[in-house]
Amino acid sequence: MKTWNIDSERAMLDLGERLGERLQPGDLLFLSGDLGAGKTTLTKGIAQGLEVTAAVTSPTFQLRKGYAGRIRLNHLDLYRLEKPSELAMLEPDELFEEGVTVVEWGDLLKANFPHDHLDVAIEYGPAEGERRVTLRPAGQRFDDLIKEL
Ligand code: ADP
Ligand code: MG
């Protein structure tokens, strides 16, 4: 486990970029945190690290958006999902086959698809404008990866 205090949007983008630079095809990340915590902001940084050139915007209404880069980015936001059966819309078998997958509000998916992953928890505080980011690796791959960050 590793924790940072992130004191600005810029610093969140930078952390995402460092993470994105180290990701490999097949990697799966679950981002948790209240609305406005910074999950999409971190994903924008990850996209920079993956050399995605298009602008990344929240996929809340589409559930899923894909971006070409050095490695493909699959960005999911499952906030609107109410039951696991709705995941069928996402063609889940394809989720992990190519690229890096970043999931906001992914608890339903996580329950259904045990798979090595990195849990990223973002909390408000400790001070105004700050966020506490905690990375919890599930699997050796992510143990090694977070040591480098
Ligand atoms: P989420 O996807 O978790 O709902 P967003 O990334 O869309 O959150 O929004 C985070 C908001 O919080 C942005 O408006 C961003 O500018 C703001 N913000 C303020 N301080 C920070 C910080 N330290 N880290 C990340 N975002 C911050
Ligand atoms: Mg978001």
UniProtKB/TrEMBL annotation:
GO terms for biological process: tRNA threonylcarbamoyladenosine modification. Keywords: ATP-binding, Cytoplasm, Magnesium, Metal-binding, Nucleotide-binding, tRNA processing. The keyword tRNA processing applies. Its main location: cytoplasm. One of its GO terms (cellular component) is cytoplasm. InterPro entries: P-loop_NTPase, T6A_TsaE. It is found in: Cytoplasm. GO terms for molecular function: ATP binding; metal ion binding. The keyword Metal-binding applies. Belongs to the TsaE family. PANTHER family: TRNA THREONYLCARBAMOYLADENOSINE BIOSYNTHESIS PROTEIN TSAE (PTHR33540). NCBIfam families: T6A_YjeE (TIGR00150). This is tRNA threonylcarbamoyladenosine biosynthesis protein TsaE.
